[in-house]
Amino acid sequence: MSVITPGITLPPLLVTPLGKKNARSLLGLPQDGYCILFVANDYRKKGLNTLLKALSQCPAGFVLAVVGNLSELPIFMEQVKILGLQCRVFFLGTLQNVAPAYESADCLAHPTLEDTFGMAVLEAMSYGLPVIVSSSTYCGISGLLQHSANALIIDDPLDPTELQHALEKALTQPLLNAELSKGAIAFANCYQWTKLALQQEMLYLDVDATKNG
Fold first, then answer.
1. CA-to-CA distance for 116 and 55, rounded, in angstroms?
2. Could you give the CA distance from residue 78 to residue 74 in angstroms, rounded to a whole number?
3. What's the structural domain count of the chain?
4. Which of 131, 174, 195, 207 is the most buried (most CB within 10 A)?
5. Minimal CA–CA distance to 164: which of 69, 1, 52?
């Protein structure tokens, strides 16, 4: 069996400090502190509950931007209130252009409970974002990633403390942060649509050669 994954188109330019500042201003996010990004439409399945609990254990300078369908907003707004995170969580809704969200963030958290692949992870990596993602038991893309080289992989997406530790490591350890960012870009570069199209072409050619052989 041959498997060809989904792919991405790389952003035209790397994000600069000014670009990040402008993106945060556009989305109404704080200019200071660390911004964690969460991108999903099914908040429950993709682990927002655990992420909010983890955020409540992180330092006050950590904020969360949530991108996606707002149909579950009332439930999670109540959790935000209970955890005292009203000033630290920003629900941005569905964005026609998600690029500013990636540009504004310092990392992506994807503690999913079920994901065949995980496009948000690959997209974030293309912007050089460190990513914290569930293991391959829960998320397909993790089977292609290397822990501490191009991602931080968590074993239990229901454990907020494990997620909290991963977030703090990714954001407050400069050497690790730089390594994850560099590894993310290198990984994403291998999964551009143009390269995947060539893989698919070669697969067809191999099948045709076998059939006609």
1. 25
2. 6
3. 1
4. 131
5. 52
